[in-house]
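CO-FOLDING WORKSHEET

Operator: S.A.
Ligand of interest: flavin-adenine dinucleotide
Run index: 417
Mode: holo prediction, single chain
Checklist:
[x] sequence pasted
[x] SMILES validated
[ ] output reviewed
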Amino acid sequence: MLIFAENKSRIAHMNIVIIGAGAAGCFASIEIKRLNPSAQVTVIEKHSKPLAKVAITGGGRCNLTNSFANVKSLEQVYPRGFRLMKRLFHTFSYADTYAWFENEGVQLVTQDDECVFPQSQNAMEIVGTLLRLMERHKIRLFTGTEAKNIHFNEGRYEIETNGGTLSADKILVTTGGHPTAKGFEMLSGFDLDIVQPVPSLFTLNINDESLKSLMGTVVENAQITLVGTKIKSQGALLITHWGISGPATLKLSAAAARILAESDYKASVSINWLNGQNDETAANMLRSMAAKNEKKQISSAYPTELNARLWKHLLDRAHISPEMRWKELQGKSLNMLVHHLTNDEYQVTGKSKFKEEFVTCGGVALSNLNQETLEAKKYKGLFFAGEVTDVDAITGGFNLQAAWTMGYAAAHGICND
Ligand SMILES: Cc1cc2nc3c(=O)[nH]c(=O)nc-3n(C[C@H](O)[C@H](O)[C@H](O)COP(=O)(O)OP(=O)(O)OC[C@H]3O[C@@H](n4cnc5c(N)ncnc54)[C@H](O)[C@@H]3O)c2cc1C
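OUTPUT RECEIVED:
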């Protein structure tokens, strides 16, 4: 009991600085105060407004989490950090996020695609809720205050900012993603491994006028493979006026974020337009279509997965005249068509942003951190949470879920230490 009392009094005077008033930082600040109401918590934010990114998430609607009902393995949604997330979800999961916000009066809805939004469809409700709680818990928030450097001196941290130096017993770094190494300069005094940051979640530019002329075409279940690798993704594919987008493309960009960065976004992708069907199944499907449509022109009937324009494009690529009769689809032309249906290769010439949404692949290496508390193994009292770490996800509410979960874990790490 005595030890408990000593700990309690040490915590009571604890001075904690959180760097970055984003999703992870603000959430953690509230959790810290709930665990230790008398701890002094200061959040500093370089921009004039806190939670500015949360305000624009989900196109202003804030896709704050996901039901995970369609998630077969966490590796699919967290290409970086799935093991850590698996561990931390035992203490703060999707269901906990859902309950947390509903307890604070935010009604949530789960869409058919399992993405969770506030019923108001307004991200500002999430921002307002977090800021109201921060105010209620008397958390100090300094906006326009940028951390420039951090020093560790005789068991205390000093944070140099543009507005002076702050001193803290413990600090939590929640500065979000930075697609360049510059964003990690303030940590240069620490012996921490930083995984080189590169962007994730982007669409692919493909310089093929014939493909781009099909813009607006959606194939509900396509499979994209990065040629020369085992990296594949599956889902809806949207053809755009610059190349390809949609969930399948974004998932591929996440899985292949580093390899694509290394090749300066020049690569080959192979599209299977038939949901990953193999050549034999595709050939059988075409043979049965030929039997049903013998005398008809080949352009007049097409697989249900495609539309007429995409079918015509694939016939062109297979050097098949649209006037050819179905019964003539044999031998080489059959093989060519099967090839383009299941393994249609295009050259990627660059990347583009997806609705201004992107996340960072890379950051503070997870090997630096205690996997339960997110405290740096080498530096007592230095914690990390959110996108600043080498954790990122595909779209669907998984990135914000990572921010809430890691914010929660770090808060508990800070208070239970
Ligand atoms: C347009 C867009 C839409 C998105 N939509 C969704 C979505 O709907 N669902 C989803 O799950 N994810 C979405 N994401 C991703 C998600 O927003 C992030 O993964 C999440 O915000 C990360 O939280 P964080 O707290 O780690 O970082 P952030 O929320 O980015 O917060 C970091 C904060 O730290 C501040 N900061 C940085 N450096 C310093 C410094 N040196 N000193 C002081 N302050 C500093 C920044 O200004 C920022 O406010 C979206 C991303 C974008 C760009």
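REVIEW:
The domain at 15-198+359-416 is CATH 3.50.50.60 (FAD/NAD(P)-binding domain).
The first strand starts at residue 15 and ends at 19.
[x] output reviewed
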